[in-house]
From TrEMBL:
Family annotation (InterPro entries): Homeodomain-like_sf, SANT/Myb
Name assigned to this protein: Myb-like domain-containing protein
Short name of any one Pfam family annotated for the protein: Myb_DNA-binding
Stretches assigned to the Myb-like domain: 158-202
Naturally occurring in which organism (per UniProt): Aeromonas veronii
Gene3D superfamilies for this protein: Homeodomain-like (1.10.10.60)
Length: 210
């Protein structure tokens, strides 16, 4: 067993029976479960697996998941990698977001690197364009399978906003307020019908023109 106060870099005191146990269970149990069964620390088990060349098959212990991944779960992730977020797949499988991310990495699965690589790219873009005035970003994300953050970025880039365009009279008012030394949070009080973010962006733009 490991000595207290000594950082392990290798282990040599595993018995032949313990080594055989690792070989037989490395794909079935997590490192924590094997450690519990052998009355050893998780680090000792990981190091021994590495020394025995078993590390590529190791199922690491992650908080929230104690069971090894099944073929059924792997298929679910493979089928839904571009349809659901890691968090939603985790909820469906009873695992954590981090569990799913680590499993995707181990399986070599990646979401589309860019939205343009998605075969339904145009369809999703058209959906957002046609519905941004009547649906929230969260609702559009749910409908398209994109994340809320991704939908928000698309709307910002395409200038899809539910608000009316700024007019000349409003711009003049904002410039006057800026000259008075008011910051964008104070300016927002004069335009309650607009979002704080919208006012902030407008103030930043007009400040450069003063």
């Amino acid at each position: 067993m490991a000595k207290l106060g000594v950082r392990l870099t290798e282990v040599t005191d595993f018995t032949n029976e313990e080594r055989q146990f690792l070989v037989e269970n490395v794909k079935k149990m997590t490192t924590a479960e094997m450690a519990d069964a052998l009355k050893r620390t998780n680090r000792e088990v990981v190091l021994m697996c590495r020394q025995m060349g078993l590390i590529k098959d190791v199922v690491y212990a992650v908080k929230g998941s104690k069971n090894a991944w099944t073929d059924k779960e792997d298929k679910f992730i493979t089928d839904n990698i571009n349809e659901l977020t890691h968090g939603k797949m985790g909820v469906a499988l009873g695992r954590t977001d981090l569990d799913v991310r680590n499993r995707c990495r181990k399986l070599g699965l990646k979401k589309y690197q860019t939205l343009a690589q998605d075969p339904e790219h145009e369809k999703k873009m058209d959906f957002i364009k046609n519905n941004y005035k009547t649906m929230t970003h969260a609702e559009m994300a749910e409908a398209t399978g994109l994340t809320k953050a991704k939908v928000s970025k698309i709307c910002a880039r395409k200038k899809y906003t539910k608000e009316n365009p700024w007019d000349e009279e409003q711009d003049i008012k904002i410039k006057e307020l800026i000259k008075q030394g008011k910051n964008w949070t104070e300016v927002h009080a004069y335009f309650p019908e607009r979002t704080l973010y919208s006012v902030q962006q407008r103030c930043c733009k007009l400040k450069k023109e003063i």
